[in-house]
């Protein structure tokens, strides 16, 4: 009878077992390090977003997505307290049954958190006295929630859930707490930003109303002055020749003030009524020559050289007086903030179906941080504030941009501190 031999497995040495154990520990440690780095990376992204992003919804969405991913959850919701209701402001991976949940006396895990002001970890919802389903779909068997606290009051809750039992550990709770702290910072920043924006809006509205009232009050005396000048013009034969020249200057300046006043009123009401411009055909080169003449008079005191590089002879359709006002505004700035014996350069060129009018100077320049705001009403750049010439209302560039846009054009600016500024007026043109 054949004997059945028993197959014996090779005996493992203690050293082999130790090596296997160390490998398993090393693999687990490596996984922990990767997860830790992933968490740090996300928290860093959230912190950067909080510092740079004004929209609270984007920050909350990033926080919730991170909470779900870092805890390997299936879904998550951020609730905010609104009086006697909880509103689901963000959800991820689940459809919330109702966007507004009535807060009954400490009902559910969320209600428990509102009362205790502490985080809550549940790894078996089948036997949890606080659990209440808040989403549709498959039942959650594990839930982890933390409060969002501002001024010792719970204003919201971040909650994540999993369909697995025994899903969450203490480390997951710590991660969620970190994210909750980021949410608190974001909400505080957003509220502070809203308060500041409202204050600025009120101050600006008050200032605009004052300017509007003054502008309308000035219209009447200016009309009287213009009427009297017209009467004097009719009897100019009785006025000495020297006085007639002075009267021409008065007429010109009165007309200039009237145009400025009208532009200011249009600027105040920008967007609330149609742009008031009077279109006519005129010779652009003649208009530029008029602006050059005025600019050279303004430049004499500082001995600034005014250069005309190009001045094409073309017929242009637009509001002659407003185009002139726009160029004079830019030229006056080029003189005011220029250096002694500096230069102002005019350059007009036709490029396809547009005309570009450039006015450049060799002045103090504008800081890069100020460039996005220089066309805002009443804005004054930091370099201008430090400059000895602080006169001006801060609306000249706003008026100029309004005129350009009223003609379907735009104004661009190129500048560098200490190297001068170039304004480029771009207007539509057809032959």
UniProtKB/TrEMBL annotation:
Record-listed E.C. numbers? 2.7.13.3
Return the Pfam families for the record.
GAF_2, HATPase_c, HisKA
Q: Which domain of life is it from?
A: Bacteria
Catalytic activity line of the entry: ATP + protein L-histidine = ADP + protein N-phospho-L-histidine
Per the UniProt entry, the signal peptide is none
**Is-annotated flag, keyword Kinase?**
yes
Cellular-component GO terms for this entry: plasma membrane
Identify the keywords attached in UniProt to this record, alphabetized. Kinase, Phosphoprotein, Transferase, Two-component regulatory system
For this chain, one GO molecular function annotation is: phosphoprotein phosphatase activity
- CDD domains given for it? HisKA
Histidine kinase domain residues are 213-431
Keyword Phosphoprotein present in the record's keywords: the answer is yes
Q: Which SMART domains match?
A: GAF, HATPase_c, HisKA
Biological process annotations from GO: cellular response to phosphate starvation
Q: What is this protein called?
A: histidine kinase
């Amino acid at each position: 009878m054949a004997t059945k031999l028993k197959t014996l497995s090779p005996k493992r040495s203690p050293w082999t077992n130790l090596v296997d154990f160390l490998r398993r520990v090393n693999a687990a440690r490596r996984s922990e390090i990767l997860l830790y780095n992933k968490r740090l990376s996300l928290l860093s992204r959230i912190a950067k977003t909080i510092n740079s992003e004004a929209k609270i919804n984007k920050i909350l969405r990033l926080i919730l997505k991170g909470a779900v991913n870092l805890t390997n959850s299936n879904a998550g919701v951020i609730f905010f307290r609104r009086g006697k209701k909880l509103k689901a402001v963000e959800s991820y991976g689940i459809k919330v049954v109702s966007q507004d949940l009535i807060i009954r006396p400490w009902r559910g895990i969320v209600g428990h958190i509102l009362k205790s002001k502490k985080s809550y970890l549940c790894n078996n919802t089948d036997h949890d006295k606080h659990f209440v389903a808040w989403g549709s779909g498959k039942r959650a068997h594990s839930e982890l929630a933390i409060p969002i606290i501002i001024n010792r009051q719970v204003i919201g809750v971040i909650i994540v859930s999993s369909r697995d039992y025994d899903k969450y550990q203490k480390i997951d709770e710590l991660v969620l707490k970190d994210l909750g702290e980021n949410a608190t910072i974001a909400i505080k920043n957003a509220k502070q930003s809203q308060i500041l924006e409202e204050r600025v809006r009120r101050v600006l509205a008050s200032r605009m109303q004052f300017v509007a009232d003054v502008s309308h009050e000035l219209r009447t005396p200016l009309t009287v002055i213009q009427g009297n000048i017209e009467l004097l013009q009719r009897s100019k034969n009785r006025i000495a020749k020297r006085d007639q020249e002075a009267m021409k200057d008065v007429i010109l300046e009165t007309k200039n003030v009237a145009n400025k006043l009208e532009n200011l009123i249009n600027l105040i009401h920008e967007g609330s009524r149609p742009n008031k411009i009077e279109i006519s055909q005129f010779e652009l080169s003649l208009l530029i020559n008029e602006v050059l003449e005025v600019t050279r008079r303004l430049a004499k005191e500082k001995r600034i050289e005014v250069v005309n590089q190009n001045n094409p002879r073309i017929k242009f359709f637009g509001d002659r007086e407003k185009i002139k006002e726009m160029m004079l505004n830019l030229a006056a700035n080029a003189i005011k903030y220029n250096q002694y014996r500096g230069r102002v350069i005019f350059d007009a060129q036709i490029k396809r179906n547009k005309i570009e009018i450039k006015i450049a100077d060799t002045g103090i320049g504008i800081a890069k941080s100020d460039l996005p705001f220089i066309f805002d009403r009443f804005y004054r750049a930091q370099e201008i504030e430090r400059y000895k010439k602080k006169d001006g209302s801060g609306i000249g560039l706003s008026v100029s941009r309004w005129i350009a846009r009223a003609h379907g054009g735009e104004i661009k600016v190129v500048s560098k501190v200490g190297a001068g500024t170039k304004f480029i007026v771009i207007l539509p043109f057809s032959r």
